[in-house]
Amino acid sequence: QAAAAGGRAALRACGVHNVCRLLSRRAHGFYARDAGVAHRKNLGLLRKIMCQESTKFKNVWTTHSASPIAYERGRIYMDNYQCCITSIAQQPRLIYQKSKCAKSEKIEDALLLECPLGELLPSPSDYKASLIVLTVQNWLLRLSADSGEVLEKVYLAGSCCKFFRYLSWDTPQEVMIVKSAQNKLPAAARQAGVHQTVLFYLAVFQVLPLSFIGMLEINKKIFGNSVTDVAVSNGILIVMYSMGLVRLYNFKAILEQFMEQPFDLGQEFNWNGQVGIVGKYPFGLPCNIKITDTPPLLFEASSLENAFQIGGYPWHYIITPNKKKHKGVFHICSLKDNALAKNGIQDMKCCSLEPDWIYFHPDMSGRIIHVGPNLIKVLKLKEVKNHADQMEIAEDFTIVANRENCVNNSVTVTASGRVVKKRFTLLDDDPEQETFKIVDYEDELDLLSTVAVTQIGADGRAHLDFHCNEHGILLKSIPLKESWDVTYSHEVYFDKDLVLHIEQKPNRRFSCYVYQMVCARDDD
Fold first, then answer.
1. Which residues are CB-neighbours of 82 under 8 A, at least 6 positions away?
2. Does residue 470 contact residue 447 with C-beta atoms inside 8 Å?
C-alpha cells in the first residue's frame, strides 16, 4: 500500500495521470532515479557517436582456422571451444587456451548462460557468465566463460539413448532443452524385422542453478509415423511431419500430466531395475516422463517445408501454402480463427537462385520483415478501418538496394543500327548487382543492420549499413575490406561498437575479421 501511494504521489508530482504515458516517459529516461536510465543514456550517446560521419570502423584483427569459429557476447571461440578470445579490448586478446581435446571429447553444441538479475544463487560462480556445452560422448558441461574451467558436469545418456546432439532454449536463460539425434535403425536391423518406435529424446533442465526437470521420448505410437523433427519453444512442443504438417502442443501441460516421478541431479535412484545416481556415469538420466496418450492439440497448420512462425499483435502466423509452385509466397493469418489478413499474401515474385525470406521483427513491435534480393519490406499489422475485428498488412517502410548503375536492357542497338535481342535476362540476385544477403537487429542501439554484396569477377565487395529501426532511414554505411565470395557461407555480427565477420570457405577453412569503432580526429 505504501509503495502504491508513493507511485500515485510520483504521478501527481510529475503531472502524469495516465499509466501508458508514465511508462512511455520512463522508457525515454525522464526519471533520473529510475533503474537503467544511465544505461539508456549511454547507449543513446554511443548510437549518436557511431552514426557520425567522422566515425569509422577499422579492421583491427584477422585470423584463420581449420575448425569452426563461433561468437558469443564479446567472446570468439576457436578450436572446438578450447580457445577463447575477447573482442571487447582495443585489439582481441587471448582469455584462455586449453590443451587440444580428444575426438571423444568433441563439443557438438553450446549455449551462453548469463546470470539472472535480482536472484540469489547457491554458488559464487553462478553470478558470472558460463558456457553450457554438449560433448559427443553425451556429457553436459558448464564451463567458466573466463577460464574454461569445468564448473558442473552431467552425464545424459543411460540405457535409453546414446546420441544427444542439440542444445536450445525453451525459455531463454531459464529452461534448456537437450535433444537427441533422430533414432534410425541400421539397414541390417530393419531387414531383420526390428521396429524402432522412439524417434527423439528430449531432456529438460532448469538453469542457474542447473537442475533436472525430466526426460521424455517422442514416439511413433503417440505422434505418428511421419514425424521428421521436433522442437520446444516458449512452452510449446512443435512436431513437424514429412508432408509439411506442423502441430503444436502445450509442453508444460505434458510435463505435468505425464511425469511419473521427479528426480534431482545427484540423487540415488532405482528405476526400472537399475540402481544409480542421477546425472552420473554410467546411468545418466532416467526417462521419467512417459507420454501414454496423444496430448490435446493446440494448433496445426500445413506449410511448405514445415515453415511456420508465430508473432505479431494480435497473434498471427506465417506459412507458405504446401505446394512447390507456391515457394516464395507467404500467407499471414490470424491465430485466433485462421482468417487471412487483408493484403496478407506477400509475394515479391523474385526470379532468383536464393529465395526471399520473411520473419517477425525481433524488436517485439509485432512488425514483419520481408527480405528479397534487392528489397527489404518492413510490414505492420493494423486494424481495418470500420472493421475492428479484422487486421490488414500495411507497409511501414522499405529499404532498396543501390542498383542505379545497373543496365539490363533486353534489346540493344549496335553502332551500325542492327537490333540485338538478349536470349536471357539477369536474375534478381545476379552477383553483379547489389544484393541483400543478411538482415539483423541490434536491440541495444535499436538499429536495423543490412549486408549488401556486389561481385564483379572473382572480387566481391560488401558493405554493412545501419538503418533507423523506426523509419528505415540510412544512418551509416561501413565497407568491409575483405573480398566477399557469394558462394561461401558468411555470418556477420554487429554488437554495439564491434563488427565481426566469420567466413567459411571450401575444405573447412574458416576466417574471422574483427572491426572496431574508431572516432577519427579532425587532422586524420
1. 97, 98, 99, 100, 101, 148
2. no
Residue 260 has pLDDT above 50, yes or no: yes
Give me the residue label for grid cell 505425464: 258
Cell numbers representing residue 448 in the block: 536495423
Which among 452, 450, 449, 451 has a CA at the least distance from the CA of 435?
A: 452
Is residue 132 within 8 Å of 110, Cβ to Cβ? yes
CA distance 127 to 156: 25
**Quick one: 125 exposed, middle or buried, by C-beta within 10 A (0-12, 13-18, 19+)?**
middle
H/E segment holding residue 236: strand 236-241
Structural contact between residues 257 and 249, judged by C-beta atoms closer than 8 angstroms? no
Residue 24 CA to chain centroid, in angstroms? 28
Could you tell me the CA-to-CA distances from 256 to 103, 213, 250, 253, 289 in Å, in that order? 38, 10, 10, 5, 9
- Answer for the pair 85, 142: CB distance below 8 angstroms, yes or no: no
Span of 231-235, 298-302, 385-389, 514-518 with lowest mean pLDDT: 385-389
The per-residue pLDDT for range 13-28, each reduced to its tens digit, is: 555 567 777 777 766 6
